[in-house]
Amino acid sequence: MGEPLRLERSPKRVRVYLAGHLVADTLSPWLVWELPYFPTYYFPRQDALAELVANGNSEHSAGRGTATMYDVAVEGERASGAACVYADSPLDRLRSLVRISWDAMDEWLEEDEPVYTHPRDPNTRVDILASSRRVQVRIDGVELADSDRPRIVFETGVPSRFYLPLSQVRTELLRPSATVTHCPYKG
Fold first, then answer.
1. CATH superfamily of 6-122
2. 13 within 8 A of 26, measured Cβ to Cβ
3. CA count, 13 A, side-chain hemisphere, 154
4. pTM listed for this prediction
């Protein structure tokens, strides 16, 4: 028997498209290492927006259990066997998730940037992604920033950091911290 299947929540917004139509959109994707080399995205069932049509097929995995296979149908397009659900999985977390076949879809996005081949392993890289998430910063009811164009830094073991365009920050309300004595970076 091999290593237990590894599952991990991702803080990234993930979207997937078929023929230009949105199939899934989530702020709560799960990364599942079906292979030891790279993860696969799984979506909460409520975030799979396309119609999932049971096609009568199933597949068995030693670690995940038996999957019910679904065709993905959206706006007259259909991808046969492109989704599966492990409703009776021995792993509780998998039971409410949908796996969508990477190769059956036309486009995958992490935040607002395309991803090719497979999801990125968050434990071996740092990602800086453009996003259209709305970020608002307020202190004591005063708005300091409002942006729909943040850059988000995703780094292993560190909370995601949001960087906002200066034009979307009320810089007149900011002042340097009294604790900074010097800045080693010029520029």
1. Domain of unknown function (DUF427) (2.170.150.40)
2. yes
3. 18
4. 0.80
